[in-house]
Amino acid sequence: MDGRIEVGKDPMGRAIADYYKNGKAGRLSVFSPMFEEDEIPLATLFRTYDAMPGIEQKALDLTKGRTLDVGAASGCHSLVLQERGMDVTAIDISSLSVETMLARGVKKPILQDFFTLQGQQYDTILMLMNGIGIVGTLDRMPELFRQLDNLLAPGGQLLCDSSDISYVFEDEDGFLEYPEDMSYYGELSFRMQYKETIGEPFPWLYVDSDTLRKVAEENGYGSEVVAEGEHFDYLARITKK
User: Fold this and answer.
1) CB neighbours of 33 closer than 8 A, spacing ≥ 6?
2) Cα–Cα distances in Å, from 107 out to 93, 94, 113, 202?
3) Which class for 130: exposed (0-12), middle (13-18), buried (19 or more C-beta within 10 A)?
């Protein structure tokens, strides 16, 4: 069994499917020990290019050649690239999301865990909407780069966005105070719920740009920030040295 999600434990996939079929959906709730309960607005997963934040637009504009869209969800990024005549493969570990992508017109949606994908190479790999978070922890980052060794064509690039969430730990005087039991402040745990469907807890990584560059260099890659968002978020371009 790779990283695929069981349908009965897939709140995001169910929410995406409901929103596509009905034009609306219930609340997709997100829980974390670090934060108060939050919600993912389903409409953001179906937005067009004009409604996307600047760093996502920049990523799509920098995309070239044969492309892999990782964690594609409803396929909004893949659809933009398809409209531009590009060859895009969209992968997700949610079968409900893959079915929705197919219904929406994504040409090559595949139920697939990125870390077990084999046999193809791509000029661009996209991990958007904090998509590099699928790595989970800093300790697992070398596994990401070994997979890039397998999947990136010569001269290829990974375009990914993330956020520096150190601001969460600022006190009222502006000093950073991290919990003593925390190995890296960007390593979080989440659980989602949609109606009665409750997902399993999963780790998620928010990595600051300096740490990403350092880890990339340790694994034979370069990382440069090519765009910055409005709230501590950034777009990085990672290439083989």
Assistant:
1) 189
2) 17, 17, 18, 29
3) middle
pLDDT tens digits for range 25-67: 999 999 998 888 999 999 999 999 999 999 999 999 999 999 9
pTM of the complete model beyond 0.85: yes
Domains plus CATH for the chain? Answer: 52-184+205-240 (3.40.50.150)
Q: How far apart are the first and last CA of the chain?
A: 33
Which one-letter DSSP state was computed for residue 5?
B
- What pairs with residue 152 in β-bridges? 122
Q: Among the residues of the chain, which ranges form H helices?
A: 11-22, 54-62, 76-83, 95-104, 141-151, 209-218
Residues whose CB falls within 8 Å of the CB of residue 171, separated by 6 or more in sequence, listed in order: 177
Task: Please state, in angstroms and rounded to a whole number, the distance separating the CA atoms of residues 230 and 173.
Answer: 22
